C-alpha cells in the first residue's frame, strides 16, 4: 500500500518538511513549523545556462599547449588516470586513495572517502526507508497495544465462560479426578506403571465438546457485533485502537467482521484435537510481527482490514499531519 501524497517531516532532517508524491520526495524543504501549502510545491525553473568565459592570454605555457613552437601534448601525463588492476573508483595520480571527481558529480562520494556519507534527501540513490503507511490518515497500531487489547477481551470472555460454562467444567473435572489422583499417588511412590489406571467415562468427551461449543459461541457473540458496528471491542476501545477496511474508512459490517473473527475464533473447536486449535491461534496472534508494512495478522489479511490508532481528541477524524511534533517522521 503506497503512502498518500502530502507534506511530511523529512527523515533526513527532522527540522524540515518535504512533499512526498507517493514515490519520492519532491521540491525543496521548508521549516518544520511553517504552514505547508495545500498542494505540491511549485516546480522550480531550470537554472540559466552559464557561458564560460574565454581564458585570458598568458605567457605561461599550459598543460595542453606546452611551450611556444611545441605541439600540444597528447593525453594526460604519465601516471595520471586508472592504474593497472583498478576497476571503478580508481584513484588519483600515483594511486592516492579517496580521490574522486569533484563538483558533486552523481554517484561519487566526498573527497577522502569519509565514512557514513549518504546522498542528500531526494537523491535518486536515497536509501532510507519510506514513510510508514497511514491508512486513511491514521497511524498503524503497535503490537503492544493490540496484544493488550486482545488480553482484555480474553479476560472478559473468560468471565462469561465462568458463568455459562462453570457447571460443565466442574462435571468434566469430576470425570478426570480419579485418573489424576491415581497418577499423582503412583508418582509419589516412584511407580511408573500405567496399568490399572481409572479411565474417564465417555461422558467426559461429551462434556469437553459442549464446553468448547459454548466458549466459541460466547466469543462470537462478544466480538462480531461490536466489531461490525464500530471496529472496536471493549479491549480495543480501552487501548484506543480500531479495525478499518483497507478500501475505505467505514464500519466493517457483519460479513467482514465474521470473516475476520472466524480465522482466530473457530480454531477454538480444535482444542479438542490435542490442542491443535491453540497452536493455530498462537500463530495468528504472532503474525503481525512478520507482516510489513501494514502489520496485518492472518485474520486481517483474510478480511482485508488494518488496525489503526484512534487519536485522543476524537474517535473518527484522522490526525492532521501538519500538527506533528518536529521530531516525528511521517
From TrEMBL:
Signal peptide region: none
Extent of Gly residues compositional bias: 82-115
Residues of the RDD domain: 141-303
Protein name, as recorded: Transporter
InterPro entries: Pra-immunoreactive, RDD
Keyword Transmembrane helix: yes
Subcellular location: Cell membrane
Keywords, alphabetical: Cell membrane, Membrane, Transmembrane, Transmembrane helix
Region Disordered, annotated ranges: 19-132, 308-330
Primary residence: membrane
A Pfam short name: RDD
Biased composition (Polar residues): 313-330
GO cellular component, one term: plasma membrane
Residue ranges crossing the lipid bilayer per the database entry: 151-170, 207-230, 264-283
Bias (Low complexity) ranges: 53-72
Membrane topology field: Multi-pass membrane protein
Biased composition (Pro residues): 37-52
